[in-house]
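Researcher: Next entry in the queue.
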Amino acid sequence: MKLTAWGRYPKIDASGGTFETRSQLERLLRDSDPVIPHGMGRSYGDSALNPKVLWTRRFDKILDFDPKTGLLHVECGVTLAEIIDLFLPRGWFLSVTPGTKFITVGGAIASDVHGKNHHHAGCFSNYVRHLELMFPDGEVRRCGPDEDADLFRSTCGGMGLTGVILTAVIQLQPVTSSFIRETVIRCHNLEDVFHRFEDHGDARYSVAWIDCLASGGSIGRSVLMLGEHSASGRLKPEPLEPLPMPMDLPGFCLNRYSVALFNRLYYRSHPDYAEGQLKPLETFFYPLDRISSWNRMYGRGGFTQYQLVLPKEASASGLREILKRIATAGLGSFLGVLKLFGPENDNLLSFPMEGYTLALDFKIEPRLFPFLDELDRIVLDHGGRLYLTKDVRMGRDMFIRSYPGWKEFESVREKYGLKSKLQSLQSQRLGI
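Model: Structure for this entry, 432 residues:
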């Protein structure tokens, strides 16, 4: 069968197996060539692609929940959407969530996903109390922050390369409503949005849409969105009608002129300041989830998301240079997202560091990858790195220079005998 990730690039021939029990998984691991776990296929690049994959989605039982503490024990194939559907009406929500709920718990751990509250809450792994892994020889190993910590620190953010995550115990947070009270602030340029992020550092959630094609004194103009859980409103959310994307958009529809027009209209559609608007929780966290197959808007050739993070002290100069290059090249994006990260954790391949992260979608075209190579050099020069979950083309040199934990990660893989059996297109490209 043809297999691809959410970016629809690359497309490969792949086969594999699915499992509902541990014994079925053990047989698949023993009988298979090198494999990689594959959940909902929502990673943007090639981190869950391989000629042989293990589909985890059917390993999806809720094992236990403590309504007093909010501790939830689940199998790896349970999705964030299923957790929300089951536990939000009971007054519990995810402590950290990325921009889509259509990922598995195993995928969230393997990517060590972050959300709009990283500056306060950190990554998904901060709320994983322990997890179970199955090694290629069938051995099951439990690990956590204080139990086989080297394995835990390698697995959280380890892109599925340390074993198949079987189960995890995660901490949910209590909420009293399925609504977010949102404040929107229009920011005139990059300096303005940085200033606003810092001024509103006590906001629980913060994220900015950024116009990647603005130039001159308007470079980095943004719409900053702040959020707090509402104390009032029903817990059970109203279902939202999905919006279809029935066909691939022709490639000519996405160009510097259409993007510039959209960005200009989107920026102007927001007021300078609007405080305390009540917004459905799912609309605030997952605006694109409502559009089924929204990845089709980039055409049949697919797209990649280029997500970088720069240290706080280098963010202003680095992001200004990057945005200038993007505006000059005209390789703009409808979706430009800027967030403020708090301190990084000690997981070996986790992406966030204290500073600012910028994520941009680019359709795949011949001149894109050479252009991204140029941006890579700016990222390195400013002490930053790229997110492995979104990556589809980073070279080994960029990887080893920006992820200082890579040597320890390789030693953990060697220690537990994982390297020959757990592989992805990404791991082969990066040489890990």
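Model: The mean pLDDT is 95.
Researcher: Noted, moving on.
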